[in-house]
Design goal:
The protein is α+β, with helices and mostly antiparallel strands and 111 residues long. The chain has a single domain, classed as Nucleoside Triphosphate Pyrophosphohydrolase. The chain has 3 helices and 3 strands. A 3-stranded mixed β-sheet has the order 2-1-3, with no helix packed on it.
Length: 111
């Protein structure tokens, strides 16, 4: 079997969190990578983990992070960081920007 060439990727961040309810799921640790993909590439749902993938615009993603109900709390954190790193959420567009960034960089977030 021939090895596939690796796509350009850049480690973006890692997150550690604990749910408010200590009886709930164990602490989580997420490693986040930015992965460049061809514009015509589409992921396939093949492992039973998800039903399908959807391509969202930055405004659609920001709307879902702010007001939606489709993302789990930990994924809201990851997507908020993505939106900040890519300039969709800025000090000019978010009144609580500084507080948000500081909270996201605490040693352990409690969701």
């Amino acid at each position: 079997m021939r090895a596939r060439p690796r796509a350009p990727r850049k480690r973006a961040r890692h997150w550690s969190h604990r749910h408010r309810n200590e009886l709930g799921p164990p602490p989580g640790l997420y490693f986040v990578w930015d992965l460049e993909c061809a514009a015509d590439w589409s992921p396939r749902a093949a492992d039973g983990e998800v039903e399908r993938f959807e391509r969202w615009s930055m405004p659609r993603l920001e709307e879902e992070v702010r007001r939606g109900e489709l993302l789990r709390p930990a994924m809201r954190l990851v997507m908020t960081d993505f939106l900040i790193r890519h300039g969709a959420i800025t000090p000019d567009s978010e009144p609580d920007y500084e507080q948000l960034v500081l909270a996201m960089h605490t040693p352990r977030l409690v969701l």
